[in-house]
Amino acid sequence: MKHLVSIRDLSKEQALSLLQDAQEFSQVNAREIKKMPTLRGRTVVNLFFENSTRTRVSFEIAATRLSADVINVSADSSSVTKGESLRDTAQTLEALGADCIVIRHPESGAPRQLADMGWISSSVINAGDGTHEHPTQALLDALTMQQRIGIDLSGVRVLIVGDILHSRVARSNLLLLTTLGAEVTLAGPSTLLPDTFTDMGGRISHDFDQSLSEKPDVVMMLRVQKERMLSNFENDEARYIKDWSLSSQRLNSLTKSSLVMHPGPINRGLEISSEAADDPRSTILLQVTNGVAVRMAVLRSVLAVDA
Ligand code: CP
Question: How many independent structural domains does the chain possess?
Fold first, then answer.
């Protein structure tokens, strides 16, 4: 595997193999000495055109644990602000020694362009592009489900809720989870879950309470992405909370073994209540922890050392 741009790049076997590698790395990460020589001599550049806490830091920790050299580049403090193009930026980073570019970009398709245009020979990993995909987030979410529910996710019922329209996390999760045999329902108001999603493979719901009454195994809440909305969301906020927030009342309707997931960052009191975020069934921080192991597995795979 040279690049990871989309979950579509992975067969079921490749996805399961990455998840198995990640599970092994999560055991390494629980040891006192976590460092491995696997990527010694390799250079990983985190090139971020959008803000990030979890993804950027976990890629940095993952590469460091594998003994790679890691450089972090934020577009807003780089020569991008002087008008340098993506192509010239990437070629410059490769000339400086990058073997792998981990890219987050506001435009859907930017990582694919970097991987496919022949501008560079470095590996490319998509760390989230526009509203398109976030493949390593889907892998860490699947690893979290495997750890809590079991390795085989076939038949597991996953309800993904909220701002589906703007969510690259929802797209990557839908693709990966259906590949792994899970039954996915997308739920949201029609403005944030338009009919264009009906052919994506999941069931569609516009009624959160009805979907919760089906007792899903996993409820994955999504952040309301106000920064990507064209109209002012503030006018709709009270209505959204009433209809779509995972309130303490809705939390109480879940089974004892249900998982409450969220990719973060969370808006407490908007899409998720503090009671739900901090409930023992919440895996929010386990998801963050698993991000390191998943990114170690992906980095090792694309850099093809001992993989
Ligand atoms: N889940 C996620 O991508 O979080 P960050 O934006 O903090 O990286």
Answer: 2
If you measure from the C-alpha of residue 55 to the centroid of ligand 1, how many angstroms do you get, rounded to a whole number? 5
- On whether both 20 and 118 belong to a single domain, the answer is yes
Average pLDDT over residues 27-35: 96
Residues 127 and 141 in one domain: no
Phi/psi-derived region of residue 175, left when phi > 0, alpha when psi is between -120 and 50, beta in every other case: alpha
Residue owning the nearest CA to atom 4 of ligand 1: 54
Q: CB of 157 closer than 6 A to ligand 1?
A: no
Ligand 1 contact via 227 beta carbon (within 6 Å) = no
Report how far residue 8's alpha carbon sits from residue 135's, in angstroms, rounded to the nearest whole number. Answer: 9
Determine the structural domain holding residue 236 and report its residue range. 135-283
Answer yes or no: is 239 within a domain.
yes
- 306 pLDDT more than 60: no
At residue 60, the 3 state secondary structure works out as helix
Kindly give the distance from the C-alpha atom of residue 13 to the centroid of ligand 1, in angstroms, as a whole number. Answer: 26
**How many angstroms is it from 78 CA to the middle of ligand 1?**
21
134 Cα nearest atom in ligand 1: 3
Return the pLDDT at 307.
Answer: 47
Residues 6+ apart with CB under 8 A from 11: none
248-288, pLDDT tens digit by residue?
999 999 999 999 999 999 999 999 999 999 999 999 999 99
Higher per-residue pLDDT: 206 or 236: 206
Asked if the model's pLDDT at residue 72 lies above 90, the reply is: yes
